[in-house]
């Protein structure tokens, strides 16, 4: 088992991320659950049906909601608040969020705001949640088609990632989670990028999966430790997410919306293309990035008939925008990200056009 410690020094947050096999049943060894007045599990119907029985918690109030991004909204949050209130959960209660990125984002938001905040831990059950959504402190829900428009910064008390939960994931869901892994290599560690992308997702052994997840946690953790509130360095983690979120939001309107990781993959191609067009990386490195994403089974295009103007309109609603202008995160090399970059809008349009 791997253990990674996340320390947010300025805010005195210090919590562990446990990563291993068959550790769900050991959760009581990682978190002192008995000291809480109540234990309250938030999960989606699918995940709870698959893994709820494996949790070694005898008495827990269980709130579930319909699986998928469409449930990540204030209506579901309201349902969770009412459930907790009906169960007389007080400020000394604990929330356990078990599921993928949607559960981590929504459950963390509920815990951060119910009674002005109660403790929570995350049990991620997808690659995406294990390497990204379950730690770092960002919690939130969508507002209509606008991604993560309502949210908080609040850290969990612990994260327990059992890789055995990944065995139940459909192939598409499993693969899309690796977009964040690839991103971590691209912005911070070229050796990690090449190590991960020399294989395909289904070729990783359990030991390799634990090592990959732990390394991604370390990369993101080191960034978050220095900049919890995204005033500077943490902006590196936005690579691929500016175009990616706009395309993901657009896809919500279709019958077959993109997974978050799929949208991020397309966003990374667009933003790597912009990096190349600006002369920040060379064309050879851009092609290496694009090919690696495609070879991993991730999409590099969003071929749905959407126009550049439609995506640009959504970019204008990006929550990172200041006075109508976005400060971009791009690449200056494979393994080196750069942030707070501004440039002519024509490069934005050309980058978006490339992936449509």
UniProtKB/TrEMBL annotation:
Cofactors required: NAD(+); Co(2+)
EC number from the UniProt entry: 4.2.3.4
Keyword vocabulary terms for this entry: Cobalt, Lyase, Metal-binding, NAD, Nucleotide-binding, Zinc
Annotated 3-dehydroquinate synthase C-terminal domain residues: 177-321
GO-annotated cellular components: cytoplasm
Top EC class, one word: lyase
Pfam families with a match to the protein in the record: DHQ_synthase, DHQS_C
Signal peptide: none
Top-level taxon: Bacteria
InterPro entries: Dehydroquinate_synthase, DHQ_synth_AroB, DHQ_synth_fam, DHQS/DOIS_N, DHQS_C
PANTHER family named among the record's database cross-references: 3-DEHYDROQUINATE SYNTHASE
Record-given protein name: 3-dehydroquinate synthase
Organism this protein belongs to: Candidatus Roizmanbacteria bacterium RIFCSPLOWO2_01_FULL_38_12
Lineage per the UniProt record: Bacteria, Candidatus Roizmaniibacteriota
